[in-house]
Amino acid sequence: MTILEQHTERMQALFRKIWGPDAVARNLLLLTGGASKRTYSADVVRCGKVLPIILQLFQARGEESGEHDVVPRLTPEQDASIQTLMKSAGVAVPNVLYILKPDDGIGLGYITERISGESSGRRIIRDDRYSGTHATLARDCARTLAAIHTFDTEPNCDFLPYTPAGDLIARFKHQVDQAGLVCPALEWALEWLDQHIPSPVRTSVCHGDFRLGNFIIGREGLRAVIDWELANLGDPAQDIGWLSVRSWRFGGARCCGGFVSLEEFIEAYVEAGGPSISLPDVMYWQAFGNVRWALHCLRRGVRYLDRGRAVSLEDTGIGRRFFEPIHDFINLVEKHGYRQ
Questions:
Q1: Chain-wide mean pLDDT for the chain?
Q2: What is the CATH number of domain 1-114?
Q3: pLDDT of 116 strictly over 60
């Protein structure tokens, strides 16, 4: 029996344990095999009914790569917990069905319902089928962020990490030193960020990776927000700034996500009950996001070997993009000249 067959059999045993001896998984597929987790899709058949599920398996601590050594990552239990809390607040997230236990024998992770829809940022922006959805998507995202950012953090969210912007920048600088990279533009960007940190209007629950690629949509609008492993406590402007990073517009012409202007999005966000956030603060976090993404590209690109094996073409391709967000950072600061 191959390792893949053994792994599949352990999953089938888990499904029988959760849903009964007659449960069987059909159409078991590996959707993504990233550095920090693997995502499987399956249809669990039980009593003649089909339950579409997603199984997330997380890599053990120390095995992951990418930005998670710098930006704190939640454990699978914490990830599932924040999704459950957000579900109770009316945020569109998949229902968490089961959190894996050590004796389940397949690793750390959880199972959620599978939400049908489109998640490819490129298709959402460029496919004519979704062109009429952009205005609705903008309103849905604004309402969603408003609900996330106004969620009562006491006492339920004490497990979420809080890392001040200055500490993150210090970690970024250490990452550059470790890589042995000499890049005056990046060094200037890090110093600029350090000198212009805005005072947050409040400390809120933040998704941490709120962008196209982590949305599931239909033609009627937003169906679910996924990938909560970078959720944190912080400045709510960070989520809007990250959504506005050019790399996450997928060729869209509009600044915020490629589908709405930043001014319109902030207005819709405040109207939905979000805290009053200034445009300069959001643009600071957009600049911050460019550097964050550049350093993620750097880390992926310099890993020529991963545990003795050559890294994937995807990793080397991401590494090649290092200079794009640095160029975006410089253009952003020079064009707007804010907070000089």
A1: 89
A2: 3.30.200
A3: yes
Q: The tokens of 1 are what?
A: 């029996």
**Predicted pLDDT at 65:** 43
Range of weakest confidence among 32-36, 98-102, 176-180, 206-210? 32-36
> With bands split at pLDDT 50, 70 and 90, how would you rate the model's confidence at 66?
very low
313: buried, middle or exposed (CB in 10 Å: 19+, 13-18, 0-12)? Answer: exposed
Specify the CATH superfamily of domain 115-340. Aminoglycoside phosphotransferase (APH), C-terminal lobe (3.90.1200.10)
Distances (CA, A) of 166 to 67, 91, 235, 292: 16, 30, 12, 13
Residue 312 pLDDT: 65
Percent of the chain at pLDDT > 90 equals 74
- Does the model's pTM come out above 0.85? yes
Neighbours of 294 (CB within 10 A): 26
Tokens in use for 129? Answer: 């089928």
All CATH 3.30.200 domain ranges of the chain, comma separated, are: 1-114
